[in-house]
Every structure is written in C-alpha cells, then in structure tokens.
Amino acid sequence: MTVMDEWVTAACAELGLDPSEVPVPVVLDLARDVAHQVLRPGAPVTAYLLGLAVGRGAEPTAAAARLGELAGAWPVELGGPPSD
Fold first, then answer.
1. At what angle do helices 60-73 and 24-37 cross, to 10 degrees?
2. pLDDT at 1
C-alpha cells in the first residue's frame, strides 16, 4: 500500500466515504492539467469543484474530462478565460 492509498483510506474513513469510489488518478491528472495550464492554486480549487459536481450526481470521469478540456483550452499566456 502506498502513502497515497493510506491517506485516501484514512481520509475516507474520517468522512464516511468508500475509498474504492475515489478515482485518484483522475483527480491527480486533472489537478496537474489545471496547475500547468491555468494556474497552480487552481488545482485544489478545481478538485473541490469536481467533488461538488460528483456529490450532485455528475459522473467523476466525465466531469474531470470536461474540466480537463477547459484547462487545455485555457490561454496560458493571457492568464484569462478562453475566447470563443
């Protein structure tokens, strides 16, 4: 068991969640994409937003993919929202 596995298991126990329902690689990939393509502090905030969406019924992988696409389209050089 890795430290990440141990942490997720302990955090889930604290919150009454099932660790098998936590898509760790999906969350980490999304956080990486946001940190590198939008801004570093956006990564934890985006992970929180993903959690809110999933808590309201969104499918985790699909929601993360949508946010990843948004981050990928973000104009890094401008530091602003993508243009239409």
1. 10
2. 87
